[in-house]
Design a protein that fits this description.
Layout (H helix, E strand, L loop, with lengths): L12 E6 L2 E6 L2 E2 L9 E2 L2 H12 L11 H13 L3 H9 L9 E2 L4 H22 L6 E2 L8 H12 L3 H14 L2 H8 L5 H8 L1 H10 L3 H25 L2
Parallel strand pairs: 5-6
Antiparallel strand pairs: 1-2, 2-3, 2-4
Helix pairs in contact: 2-6, 3-5, 3-6, 4-7, 6-7, 6-10, 7-8
Length: about 240
């Protein structure tokens, strides 16, 4: 179904086994993506999650309350036709990874960055034999090409649903390493989100909070957690 402005017309959403996975029926009508493809999910757990979102609709369909459905639509309609390009875009974050770019001062901020970020860079080096460089400022660093290639190879191996989840984890945190650490559960996702916010939280400590900035940050945090939930559902059968 692609008419997001429609009212609920079905009595129940159900999970149906199909040749390539699981799909969702609204009564006897299969759910379709905005591009009119059948919404086929890779795991039964994800299918039940999507079905629950449809069952929770009351009155007008509210797409913002259906993150799994929206992510599945993106995986099928947007990521699948351009999988290689999406993988390359995600891997490209490694060249400008947040964890590589450190403050020049003050010492307290430098110490916070090192405490949170050095172990993650060490993990990437140990796991992928991919040691990223560290420097100050925002200018590009000369990372070893083979390190970036190994990270890109890891990303390229993921299917469209996992790429969809990883894309949001990386783009919202600004770090390929944080995204990969999240899916590998190196630390809890909440802790890794906090690690991505060290610079912003430092600024808040210096200048005070801003309601709009806090609201924007909460939306990003929620998106990060939803992306992790999507990834987790790709692992469950």
């Amino acid at each position: 179904m692609s008419d997001w402005a429609a009212k609920r017309f079905w009595k129940a959403a159900s999970v149906v086994v199909v040749e390539d996975g699981w799909t969702i029926h609204l009564d006897d009508r299969p759910v379709r993506t905005p591009a009119k493809a059948t919404l086929i999910l890779p795991t039964e757990a994800m299918a039940h999650g999507v079905a629950a979102e449809w069952d929770a609709q009351d009155g007008l369909i509210q797409p913002l309350s259906m993150p799994l459905t929206r992510a599945a639509n993106a995986a099928i309609d947007k990521v699948t036709p351009q999988r290689a390009e999406v993988a390359a875009m995600i891997a490209g974050y490694g060249a400008t990874d947040l964890l590589s770019h450190r403050a020049e001062e003050p010492m307290e901020l430098i110490a916070r960055q090192a405490e949170a970020w050095d172990p993650l860079l060490d993990w990437a080096a140990d796991t992928y034999d991919a040691r990223l460089m560290v420097g100050t400022g925002i200018m590009p660093l000369d990372h070893p090409p083979e390190a970036l290639e190994r990270l890109a190879g890891e990303v390229a191996a993921y299917d469209p649903f996992r790429l969809t989840a990883l894309h949001d984890l990386v783009s919202l945190s600004g770090s390929l390493i944080i995204g990969l650490a999240t899916i590998h559960k190196v630390q809890p996702p909440e802790a890794l989100w906090v690690a991505s916010r060290i610079d912003e939280e430092w600024q808040i400590e210096q200048w005070g909070r801003d309601d709009q900035a806090d609201s924007d940050a909460e939306l990003k945090r929620a998106g990060f957690m939803q992306a992790f939930a999507l990834w987790d559902l790709t692992l469950r059968r």
